[in-house]
Amino acid sequence: MKKIAVFASGSGSNFQALVDAAKADQLSCEIALMVCDKPGAFAIERADKAGIPSLVISPKDCASKVDYEKQILQKLNESEVELIVLAGYMRLIGETLLSAYEGRIVNIHPSLLPSFPGKDAIGQAFQAKVMITGVTVHYVDEGMDTGPIIAQEAVKMDENETRESLEAKIHQVEHLLYPNVIQKLCSREK
Ligand code: GRF
User: Fold this and answer.
1) pLDDT value at position 190?
2) Alpha carbon separation from 67 to 17, 54, 71, 79, 95 (Å, rounded)
3) Does 147 sit in the ligand 1 pocket, CB within 6 Å?
4) Pocket of ligand 1, candidates 108, 135, 169: which has the most ligand atoms within 8 Å of its Cβ, to mutate?
5) What ranges in 137-190 are assigned the alpha helix state H?
6) Is the distance from CB of 84 to CB of 69 less than 8 angstroms?
7) Superfamily of structural domain 2-187
């Protein structure tokens, strides 16, 4: 079975959706590792509860970004990880990981890219008063939310939509879409 690592920085609800899908036998891959750059993030608790090993490492404690990513890479290699799944990982992936995992890093972003890349995509879409926004899963390249798109799902903004209600709708879509896409990627031949 293919091994994947999930990278998270915060709450980790998308990580949890993947964990739940794996538990329900809806994912033909093993979540071998959770990598977190923020000590104290709730995602770490979720990993502990699910019995998934986590690597908690802050770039602040490393000599450089290269050194930070080299330490992650070593752990990924030890865990025989084949696919990196970014789920709320609030950092650009650097050259070290990009070259080691070329074409094997994916991300989920809460807008219909290329609209509203970067931080607070839900807030950006809400402020822009677009009628339709959504969720994108894409491959990761050196840019910010710029890699080739794998899947998208639209979310309609209702007339009385609040920022909070929009956020809840987007997360609901994310939690279904991401496990589905990861399942498809994992069930592909190498
Ligand atoms: C999600 O909206 C995801 O699309 C974005 O960051 C958020 C992470 O949420 N990249 P969570 O940590 O998975 O709850």
Assistant:
1) 57
2) 30, 18, 6, 19, 11
3) no
4) 108
5) 163-187
6) no
7) Formyl transferase, N-terminal domain (3.40.50.170)
What is residue 189's predicted lDDT score, i.e. its pLDDT?
A: 61
21 and 100 in contact (C-beta within 8 Å)?
Answer: no
Tokens 């802050």 locate to: 58
Among protein residues, the one with the nearest Cα to ligand 1's atom 12 is 12
**Angle between helices 163-187 and 121-128 in degrees, nearest 10:** 130
Instruction: Kindly list the domain boundaries of the chain, sorted by start residue.
Output: 2-187
- pLDDT tier for residue 41 given thresholds of 50, 70 and 90: very high
Which value, to the nearest 10 degrees, does the dihedral of the CA atoms of residues 176, 179, 181, 187 take?
A: -140
